[in-house]
Amino acid sequence: MKSQKLPEVLAPAGSLDKLKVAVLYGANAVYVGGQKFGLRTAADNFTEDELREGMAFAHARGAKVYVVLNSFLHDKDLTELPEFVSFLEDIGTDAVIVSDLGVVRTVRAHSTIPIHVSTQASTLNVHSALLWKEAGAQRIVLGREVSVREAGKIRREAQIEIEMFIHGSMCMAYSGHCVISNFTQGRDSNRGGCAHSCRFEYSIEGLDTLEKKRAFFMSSKDLEGLRVLPAFIEEGIDSLKIEGRMKSHLYAGTMAKVYSEALRFYAQHGHFLSDDLRDWEAELSKVSHRAYTEASLLTPAGPDSIFNERENASEGEWRMVGTVVEANPKAGIVLEVRNAFNQGDEIEILPFRGSAVRLRALEMSDLASQPVVRTRPTTLVRLPFVSGVEAMHLVRHRINP
In which band, very low, low, confident or very high, does the pLDDT at 401 lie, cut at 50, 70 and 90? Predict the structure, then answer.
């Protein structure tokens, strides 16, 4: 096949553990937030020590780390930013993600860290991209209203790196510029306080009738762009971003694994096989999600992209029950339990590459070799060794078997 540059897989990392999971499962880069200046204040976020450790862990495995500084800042916030920017440069931060021109100027004045422009900046056209490039940006994270074809045009004509969302939750507001949380709960969505008020059920009162209808009319389906990967590659998109810093370890690992595997397959074969696409889509369906849509990746999103129903655990949904701490023939599989499961339950261990290892937990014991009938969170249990299982592998269990 003709050699084509493949985009990086950029995964979310809401904590140090999630960073390690995403990198081990194939992410080429992760994006993280510090204790300030980001848009996910409810996430665990990183202390300075954790940022330093996460940076070292990722770099040792050939992955990059981008730090979000994408909150809309006031002057009082900017007084604390220079010191943090200098720290980020000292630890080798690969890029910062910003949405504010004042932050751009501050970053450039106190470091040489590459600047990526956040989707919050609503960059949708060539001229906007050129302005950001003149301001010092190396990459643009385009608004989700842009199609892959439009993104390719912006990349070619502006001669700047382009990053696009490929998977995850989406905001119904234009480029995420929402103030519903401000109105309903006094929490500023654009300064890290989004309460996801758009996901609530609302009463709609018609103009010509007294009838009231209840609906989730502001809630979007989740983005899923697996089958659009060839278009991303053809248009030379530099980075494929997965939403979800507040989501689970299983989410971070599964998304990094599926999209990196799909890109490796394409690099080798130059196309996708239907069976492989079905297998990858089955993996994506095992993680908690709303119904999927390709949104505006190919054509503008329409009414069918609205998720007008309650969010309940779907049939076939799986959840993470633990992480492998140790695995060898002598020790067996030592599992740190996150969610309880029973003796005899079927579990799946997700390797960094390849198909899941399926087994039934018929023999379980604690570390004192006492039988365990039902596991308890935060405890360690031992299972018989199975070839192919390694430390840090995620373990999942079907909620509704």
Answer: low
